[in-house]
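User: C-alpha cells for this complex, please. No commentary.
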Amino acid sequence: MWGFNITKTRAIDFDKNNREPMMEILRLEPSIRVCIACGACTATCTSGNLTPFNIRQLNVFMQRGEYQELKKEMHKCMLCGKCTLVCPRGVNLRHLILKTREVLLNEEPLFAQN
Amino acid sequence: MQPNYFDPFVLPFTLSMFALLTFLVFKYGSWIYRFGASDRKKVFKGFFSRNSWLAMKEIFMEGLLHRKIFKTNRRLGYMHMSLAFGWFLLIVVGAIEAHTFAKGSSPFYFPIFFRFFVPGTHESFFSDGFTQLMDLLLLFVLSGLFLAVLKRFKSVWVGQTKTSRKKPIDRVVLTSLWLIFPLRLLAESFTSGIHHSGGFLTGSLGTFFGVFLPINQLAYPAWWAYSLALGFFFIGLPFTRYMHIPTEMVLIFFRNWGIKLGVDNPVLMEVEINSCPKCGICIDTCQLSSMAGIHNTQSVYFIQKLRYHEDYNQVAESCLMCGRCEAVCPVAIDLNSIRLMHRADVSATREENFGFIPVQTRTADVIYFAGCMTHLTPTIKNSMVKILNASGDKYWFFDKEQGACCGRPLKLAGQLEAARELVERNRQMMMESGARMLVASCPICYKTFAEDYHLGMEVLHHSQYLERLMANKQISVEKLEVSAVYHDPCELGRGSGIYESPRAVVQNVAKLKSSVYQKENALCCGGSIAHLTLPLEKKKQIARETLRLLTVEHPQVIATGCPLCKKSFTGESGTKIMDIAELVAKALVAKPVREAAKQQKEPVYL
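Assistant:
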C-alpha cells in the first residue's frame, strides 16, 4: 500500500548530476583538494555567526554537484577572508567562493536541469 | 626672394607627421567626446584657468626633466631626461636658429633639415653660436641614447634590476627611434664635411669622415635615411609605447583641470593606459617579482594587456595592491583603481542580500570598529578595549559580537555591488548613533570608512585616536624599555597617507628605530586580501623576506598598525610583533583619570 515511494530517495546519483562546474571550480582553485573538513573556516566565519551559513557544507554541496543550494548560499559571504587565514591546510577559501560564484553564474544552463 | 626649400627626401617626415597629428586629434577628440557632462564642463572651465599653467609646469618637470625617475635612480633619470629634454631643446633651438636665418616664413620641416638647406657657414645673427649649441645638444641626446643601448644589454648598469619585456612592434619602433639621432649626426657631419662648416662635433666628424669616405655621395642618402627614420617613428608611434609621449601631456592637463579617475569613474582610464611608457620601474619595486618569483603580473604587463585587448582576468587578480608601483610610477597612473575595475563583478546578479545582519543602534560619542581581522588577533581588540575604558570616552563597540564586515574586502575582490549594499547597511547604523567619531583598528576598514561611507563624522585609525588621547592627557603612559621599528601597513601608509601618527605613538611608548623600508617605501607583509590567488606558501615567503629587511637594525619589537600585518608576520618572525595598541596598553599607567574610576581605585578592564 505504501510502497517505497513514500519518501523521496536521498541517494545522490553522480551520473545524473553534472560535475562539469565542479571540475571547473577545482581547476580555478585547486587548493580545496587538500581540505580535511576540520570546520575551522565555519567556526570563524562572520556570516556564519549571524546566519546558518556554513562553508564546510558548501564544499559538500559542490562535491556532490548540488549547485542550486550552493548558489543560494554563496552570496551570504562577505569575503572578509578570515576563513582563509585560519585554514590549517592553506586553502584559499576566499578565492574558491569567488570563483564558485563566477562559475555558477556563467554556467547557468549547465546545471539548470538538476 | 624666398629660396625654394624643398627636396623629395623631406616627404617621409612631413607626411608621417601630418598623419600622426590627424590621428591624435581624432583620438583625443573622441576621448573628450566620451566624457560625462560634468567632466566636459571641467575641461572647458579649466582650459583658460591658472591650472593650465600649472599643468605646463608639471609637463616640464615630469615630462621633460623626469624628476620622479631621478628620485628612483639618477642614471635612469639622466637617460630619460637627455632623450626627452635634449630632443625638445634640439627642436626649440633648431627652430629659433632657422627662423633667425630665414627672417620670415619657411616650411615647417625647414628647421629639422636646416643644415641640408643651409649647408655652409652663413652670416645671420649668432650663427656660430647656434651651430655649436646644436652640436652640444645632439651630443647630449646621444649620451642618453648610449645609456639606452647599454640598458638593453644590461639594465643594472642603468639602475634597473629588471626591465619590461617589449612587444615586437615596440622593438621595431624603438630601433627607428634610436636610429634618428645617429643618422642626424651622420647627415649633418657629411654635409659639414663637404662645405667645411659645422660645429665642434659635426664639423670635426665631417672632416674626419672626409679622409676615407666618399662623403659627397653619402650625404644625400644620409638625409634620406634620417627623414625615413623620423617618418617610421611617427607612423609607428600610435601603436607602441611611444604613444605615451603625446598622451602624458594630455593626461597632465586633464588632471590639473580636476578630472580624476576612480573605481566608479573610468573616464581617464584609456588616457592613462595610453600614457604608460612601459618603463618597467614598477617591476623592481613589486614584491611579487622580487620575493615571490611571479614575473607576469606587474602593472606594466597588466596595462599592456588592457591596451592590446588581451585576456587579463588572471593578471587582474594577481596583485597585492600594496601601492608600491603607484608610488614610483613616473606618470602616476592610478594602477590600483584600474586593476580593481577589471576584477569581474558577479555580485550584481546575486539572489541573497545581507539582510541577516542584525540592525542595532546605540547612542555614543565614539564608535569603535574592530574589524574582522582584529577579531582574529584578539590581543589588539583587548588592548583597545582597555584603552577605551581608561580614556573615559563614551564608546560603542560596534562589532563586539562580530557583526558585519566593512565592505572593503568585497570591493577589493571587485564585488562593487555587494560592497555598496554592506556600506549602506553599516552606514545607517552608525549615523543613528549620533557619534562624533569613528575609530577603526584595521586600516582596511579605515580606508573604506574614510573614503566610501561619507559619514559626516570624524573617522580615525586607532593610531590617530591614541595620539590624540595622549595629547589630551586622557590616558597617561610610561615609556617602555624596548626598541621598536614601525612597519607601515599598505592601506594606512600609501593607501591613506597616515605615516606620522603611529610613529608619534610609538615614540611615546618605546624607542623608535628607523628603517630603509618605511613610509612610501614600506613593504607589504604579503598577507594582503587584495591578492585573490596567492598561495599560502608564497605569502609566507614574502612575509619572511620582509621581516628580514625590517630587522636589520635588530629591534626588539616590530610595531605595526594593522591586524592583518600582525597575523601574516606572527609565526614567521623571531622578533615580537606588536600592534601599537598593544604597546600603548602595556605602557598604560593604571591611574584613575575620571571620577568614576577614582572611586573604584582600579582601572576598568573588560
